Amino acid sequence: MADVTRSVSMFEQIRLVAGLRWRILANSLRKKNNRLDLIGLILTGVFASILVIGLSFAFYAGAYAFLSQGRLEWMALLFWGIFLFWQIFPVFVAGFGANFEFRTLLRFPLSLRAFYIIGLAYGFADFSALASVSWLLAMTAGATVAKPGVLPAMLLIVALFMLLNVTLERLIGSWLERLLARRRTREIFFGLFVLSMISLNFLSPLMQRYGASARPGFLRLLPYFAWFPPSLAGSALAAITRLQPARFLLNSGILVLYLVLFSALLWRRFAAQYRGEELSETEAPARAAGRPITGKDDSPDRLSLLSPPVAAIVRKEFRYLTRNGFAYLTLLMPPLLIMIFSMNFAGRHPTVGGKGVSAEMFFPGMMAYLILILMAPAYNSFAYEGRGIQTYFTAPLRFRDVFLGKNLMLVSVLSVEIALSLAMLTWRVGLPSAHMLVATCAAIIFTIVGQLTIANWSSITFPRKMEFGQMRGQRQSGMAVLVAFGSQILMGGISAVILFTGNWTGNVWLPAEAFVFLAAAAVGGYFASLDALTKLAEKKKELLIEALCR
Amino acid sequence: MPEMAIQTQKLTRRFGNLTAVDGVDLQVTAGQFFGFLGPNGAGKSTTIKILTGLLAPTSGNIELLGVDFAANPVEVKRQIGVVPEGMGLFERLTGSEYLKFVGRMYGLDRATTERRSEELLDFMQLADRPRTMIADYSHGMQKKLALAAAVIHGPRILFLDEPFEGVDALAAGALKALLARMTERGTTIFLTSHVLEIVERLCSHVAIIHKGRLVAQGSLEELRAGISGEAGSKTTLEQIFLSIVGQDGTERPQLEELSWLM
């Protein structure tokens, strides 16, 4: 029989968990390819330390100034700053795929109480918590120097505020864990994150247009904020400074109530996890009661002009596009960005600069930007294939069919995007002259097809696996990025020089003629390259399979 | 003379200093249910990858159904079906979409692909979740789908790398029956598995690879006779395997070292 183990103290368990986390970090840095990560980590650490220490001085100075100048209500602003950082920063980190390995502790002999306390201790080890605690201590020091008598009350409020924040942060974290465990919600979360980042660009024009009228409405909402924990903490401190013990007790009491409520909710969440909450979305196999009516597709094949393998790959690429939340959202970006840029730099009322950029410049500029964004994934076009890449090598097809199918899908997407962006441009800025329109369209063909050849080579030479709906660890190969960057600069440079030759020579149709010639050459070069790339793919298949099947 | 389905000569694959497959000469007759065995890291998966075109050999020749693989890879691939290590599925497709994709990749017409897809999904008990993506399938369901995809074009040789791993007993029974039926109809099946009982029950012929070298090859009867010295003995495949693999001094772990656990 195995020995019966002795019980381990909670402190020992916390120490073991901290040791485990340190060991995981140290081991990950031992890998050769993680040296850059180590440098990045050191730089980030230095930057974060400067930020935390610098802001600690700011919080010290703020607390000192508000208390010594009698602006007691303003203390709530400092509590609000810390509260928002403590609660929002971890959510952003979760969006980047933070590890939630805390649940794995459940395999060990822990009581629910120990699990709960270790969970809270875990919460204090986060960067947001460490930074917030530093700032709260700096505030305490500032307040004590300004009015030494507030120290006991300040310590009580800060302790309550810390506990409340760490409990709320763990509560939000545990709910996020539950949500992000499901692929679908993870992707929606990721999509919303990207969209919210893009939407920030609208803030400036919207504030300029509606800022003044929205202000009264916002001011009417302000009193309600007094019932939130940061305002309560600020009010409690103001009350004790003004020697109003009843108000201090009321505000502190409400803070305690918040703490009790959050603790009860967190206990429920941890208890659910402790009992073995199932987060997996994998369905158990079950015998079908009967074959479902799938509706046989007797319609003519819309891709009948293509060979069956190429048509199959185009269909598969389309399905992958529609099921990749991030890729799908990037399709919304170009028209959106063109709208933002047209608001800022062009049209009748540009918000940046007095005079807007003319359609003659704006159209080719925006098209170049669009191609820059949409062509980037082509340089690692097998990123999302995963283990499916093996199918391309076991199936009876030449690899040129794979390139053709993938490139055809990309060109179709680009065509739709360009058409949408063109419509947006026409609405917002207007069309350029005929010669510029033709020259830009031919330049688009030249740059897209020219880049496709290089991108296909890059995809099989520098493959890097990517996961759907994840941001953390989703880096392209450094060489693929360099190749993409280089070829885009080359194509963009050639195009810019040719576009300007029209002005220099006085022959406005010269760029159009030159681009038509280059586009034809690029198309010829593309088809000529397919066989060579097929041979290269055969040579590189082991590298490709190894990189994508990890 | 019977038709040879798989024939290799001096098949070798090196990874730097490591020789994973070392001069392997395989001979598999058409219609055989062939088990390819070996301990962990012996070179089974590397061999199957080379035979299916996923890995290039460092040297040596491969002929499948009498056709030189290196010279005519596309023609050979039309005749074979593969369940590779890791299954090779496109996880963002549904099971039905994946089968249709594979069917078209093998050149089946649309109607045939659709009909066979539905029949295979039904047989594999995967038809009741038409909208579920493969990423959301359990491991066993993915395995069954990979097997369905490997047979959709009616291959003449089927390569299966650990096909029953993670498949429930009910489905495994149906799959074994299907595979047995396919061999009766002339399909050659080349299978690797760690479960020796499965191999013993299904396979008529077996080869054992150890440290990259082929150390035994033949029918089960021939291997039994080689070990016990008499035909028709009751030696199990496990005994044969341990006897052959243990010949070079490879020892089984000694339980005495874990006395505190007993």
Describe this structure in words.
The complex is a heterodimer of chains A (550) and B (262). Chain A is mostly helical and 550 residues long. Chain A has helices spanning 10-30, 35-68, 75-95, 112-124, 127-146, 151-180, 183-221, 229-241, 245-274, 308-323, 325-345, 359-375, 389-394, 399-428, 434-461, 478-505, 510-548. Chain A folds into two domains: 10-201 and 224-274, no CATH class; 308-548, no CATH class. Chain A contains 17 helices and no strands. Chain A starts with 9 loop residues before the first helix and ends with a helix. By secondary structure, chain B is α/β, with parallel strands linked by helices. The mean pLDDT of chain B is 87. The interface between A and B is large, with 49 and 55 residues.
- The structure class of chain B reads alpha/beta
Query: How big is the Rg of chain A?
Result: 30 Å
| Number of distinct helices of chain B | 9
What is the CA–CA distance across the termini of chain A? 39 Å
Let me know the largest β-sheet of chain A.
none
Structural class of chain A: mainly alpha
Averaged pLDDT of chain B? 87
Runs of chain A in which pLDDT lies below 50 for 5 or more consecutive residues are: 96-100, 283-295
Would you list the SSEs of chain A in sequence order as H and E? HHHHHHHHHHHHHHHHH
Instruction: Name the CATH architecture of chain B.
Output: 3-Layer(aba) Sandwich
Q: How many beta-strand segments of chain B?
A: 11
The CATH homologous superfamily of chain B is termed P-loop containing nucleotide triphosphate hydrolases
Tell me, briefly, the overall form of chain B.
globular
Give the termini distance of chain B in whole angstroms.
56 Å
Return Rg of chain B in Å.
Answer: 19 Å
Q: Helix share of residues of chain B?
A: 25-40%
Would you list the SSEs of chain B in sequence order as H and E?
Answer: EEEEHEEHEHHHEHEHEEHH
Order of adjacent strands in the largest pleated sheet of chain B: 7-8-9-4-10-11
What does the oligomeric state look like here? heterodimer
- Residues in β-strands, percent of chain A: under 5%
Share in helix of chain A: over 70%
